[in-house]
Design a protein that fits this description.
The chain is an all-alpha fold. It contains 6 helices and no strands. It binds zinc ion (ZN). The site of zinc ion has 7 residues, from helix 1 and helix 3.
């Protein structure tokens, strides 16, 4: 028996001829497989007719809400990204403008003086810290002459470094003034 032919007759939405109807009914009477297709298909068609098109399927509204929430979150993410990029660009531009103003207002020599002054100040700060450390060192070196030698040489290096920085600073300052 050719089931596919009858399946086509069941599923096709064409009007059947009286002869086709007769053979189909005869086949359905003895074939459970095609019966199942027939009942299933007619039931589905019935459901499609009775269910109003305007009524969304159950859960559709919730799904749509969830989707809109996802969309909203995505839009917020995009907006925050735009904000970050905007801030970065504006910050960079501000920095560029400030540096242009700075470089046009101050000469390179002035800049060098400022840099060296800052370095010297930092060195003085380090010296103060060093002095605190020295007190601790003094306690330690009282026990060993080797540690004392190391301490003195280290101190000498720091002192000469500080002198060098000061010298460079004053030398640069003199250059600016001349
Ligand atoms: Zn059949």
């Amino acid at each position: 028996m050719n089931h596919t032919h009858f399946e086509e007759l069941i599923l096709d939405d064409i009007k059947l001829s009286p002869e086709q109807k007769k053979t189909l009914e005869a086949h359905l009477a003895e074939c459970t497989q095609c019966q199942k297709i027939q009942t299933g298909w007619s039931g589905l068609r019935q459901e499609m007719r009775t269910t109003p098109a305007v009524n969304p399927a159950p859960g559709f509204t919730q799904r749509w809400k969830a989707n809109s929430e996802v969309r909203r979150a995505q839009q917020q993410m995009i907006q925050s990204r735009k904000l970050i990029i905007g801030f970065s660009i504006s910050g960079f531009m501000l920095l560029a403008i400030l540096s242009i103003v700075f470089f046009t207002q101050y000469s390179p020599a002035d800049l060098l003086v400022t840099i060296f002054r800052t370095i010297t100040r930092l060195a003085i700060g380090f010296e103060e810290l060093r002095q605190v450390v020295t007190i601790w060192f003094k306690i330690v070196i009282s026990t060993s002459p080797a540690t004392l030698a190391i301490f003195i040489s280290t101190w000498f290096v720091i002192l000469s470094l500080g002198l060098f920085i000061s010298y460079t600073r004053f030398w640069r300052k003199g250059e600016v003034r001349s």
